[in-house]
Each structure stands twice: as structure tokens, then as C-alpha cells.
Amino acid sequence: MKRFDLSLYLVLDPGLCRVRTMVETARLAVAGGATMVQLRDKEAGTSGLVATGRALMDVLAGTGVKLIVNDDVEAAAAIDAHGVHVGQDDMPAIEVRSRVGPDMILGLSAENEAAVRAADPAMVDYLGLGPVFATPTKPDHKPPIGFDGLAQLARLSPVPTVAIGGLKAEHVRSLFSTGVDGMAVVSAICSHRAPDIAARKLMAMIESERRRRDP
């Protein structure tokens, strides 16, 4: 059985991480409590992703935090990353699974009810639901679904779920009332002057909300 924690899922953005680099941002965020890291860089190409990914794997070694590569299956395999995440318009999940084998974590974006219902738990390990809100970090995103839409999709999902799209600390309470397993953030950590402090604050809020709901 694959073990991973979606609670605080950091999606690295090369533009927002320019001051510290993605590797240093990830190191600090994990020190603060981030539970999963995704490498997303649409401009780097496979060779660039592999170089950054290998550095990230070194930083994450011994932490238990999983590295997920966005979209590029070839890079994920070369890095020996823990997983890969694809969208609805990328390579089909069944083909991704055939390429990466049974042990790699496979995440899939799902923006609507049809996509969630079509997700095969024999292929996919988790779903990324959203965008919850509009976000400038992904200008080509689908229409925002809001918390009501998120709750509907989370109820339907056959696998664990992580919400994404414009999420910040002030959204934690409303977010976890929808039944998702985690929140994915980009600017809330990458743009912060101290990524470790930002991650620590978010994790404290997440844990507090879970205690409130499950005393």
C-alpha cells in the first residue's frame, strides 16, 4: 500500500521561487511541515526537470515527504521520483500507469463530476480537485468550482483528494469542511518571505481544524 500525506501539498512555481530557488523553498517548507512537494515547471523541459528533481530528492531524503513531478512521465522516471501528476488533457492515466509501474504514486486533476466519476482507483492514487478559486499561477485553469463544488466532488471521489486553486491560510476552515484530505498551495508558501514559517502556520491551522472536527 502506498503511503503519502496530502495535508499540506506544496506546488513549486519557478517564478515565485526565484529568490530562493525551488530546491531551497522546498527544503524550508518541509522543515516547516509541508507533507508533499510537486515539481511543476512548464518551461524547463525534461532535462531541466531532471536536474531540479534530483536536487529535490536529495533535499527530501529521510524526511518521508514525497516528490511528485507534474506531467512529465519521462522526467519522473529519470529522477526516480515518488510520483507523477497529470491533468485531464495530458497522457491518459491508464497509459501513465503502464509506463511508471504499480509502485509510483499517480495523481490526476479533476475539475468536474464526470472526471471524478471516471477516475479508476486501480490506476489513480489521488485526485487534485479544483481550481477552488481563480489563480494567476495557472492562467489557463478551468472555471473555479468554489467550496460547494469542491464538497460535491470530494464526496464522489473514490480516492483521497487534495484541493488546489488560490488557497491561503484564511481558507483552511472552509476547505476542510468539504471533506478533502489536503490543500495544495503555491503562492501561500512560495511567495512568503519565510517558507518554513508559512508552512508551519498552515500545518498548525490544518491540525487544529482536524482536532476541532474529530476531537
TrEMBL record:
GO cellular component labels: cytoplasm
Entry EC no(s): 2.5.1.3
Reactions performed catalytically: 2-(2-carboxy-4-methylthiazol-5-yl)ethyl phosphate + 4-amino-2-methyl-5-(diphosphooxymethyl)pyrimidine + 2 H(+) = thiamine phosphate + CO2 + diphosphate; 2-[(2R,5Z)-2-carboxy-4-methylthiazol-5(2H)-ylidene]ethyl phosphate + 4-amino-2-methyl-5-(diphosphooxymethyl)pyrimidine + 2 H(+) = thiamine phosphate + CO2 + diphosphate; 4-methyl-5-(2-phosphooxyethyl)-thiazole + 4-amino-2-methyl-5-(diphosphooxymethyl)pyrimidine + H(+) = thiamine phosphate + diphosphate
Known pathway: Cofactor biosynthesis; thiamine diphosphate biosynthesis; thiamine phosphate from 4-amino-2-methyl-5-diphosphomethylpyrimidine and 4-methyl-5-(2-phosphoethyl)-thiazole: step 1/1
Pfam families: TMP-TENI (PF02581)
Keyword Metal-binding: yes
Cofactor binding, note field: Binds 1 Mg(2+) ion per subunit.
Keywords: Magnesium, Metal-binding, Thiamine biosynthesis, Transferase
Gene Ontology terms describing biological process: thiamine biosynthetic process; thiamine diphosphate biosynthetic process
Annotated positions binding 2-[(2R,5Z)-2-carboxy-4-methylthiazol-5(2H)-ylidene]ethyl phosphate: 135-137, 166, 186-187
UniProt cross-references to InterPro entries, sorted A to Z: Aldolase_TIM, ThiamineP_synth_sf, ThiamineP_synth_TenI, TMP_synthase
GO molecular function: magnesium ion binding; thiamine-phosphate diphosphorylase activity
Keyword hit for Magnesium: yes
Residues given in the record as 4-amino-2-methyl-5-(diphosphooxymethyl)pyrimidine binding sites: 38-42, 70, 109, 138
Xref: Gene3D superfamilies: Aldolase class I (3.20.20.70)
Required co-factors: Mg(2+)
Domain of life: Bacteria
Binding residues for Mg(2+): 71, 90
Family: Belongs to the thiamine-phosphate synthase family.
Function: Condenses 4-methyl-5-(beta-hydroxyethyl)thiazole monophosphate (THZ-P) and 2-methyl-4-amino-5-hydroxymethyl pyrimidine pyrophosphate (HMP-PP) to form thiamine monophosphate (TMP).
PANTHER family: THIAMINE-PHOSPHATE PYROPHOSPHORYLASE (PTHR20857), THIAMINE-PHOSPHATE SYNTHASE (PTHR20857:SF15)
HAMAP family in alphabetical order: TMP_synthase
Protein name as annotated: Thiamine-phosphate synthase
Species name: Devosia elaeis
Source species taxonomy: Bacteria, Pseudomonadati, Pseudomonadota, Alphaproteobacteria, Hyphomicrobiales
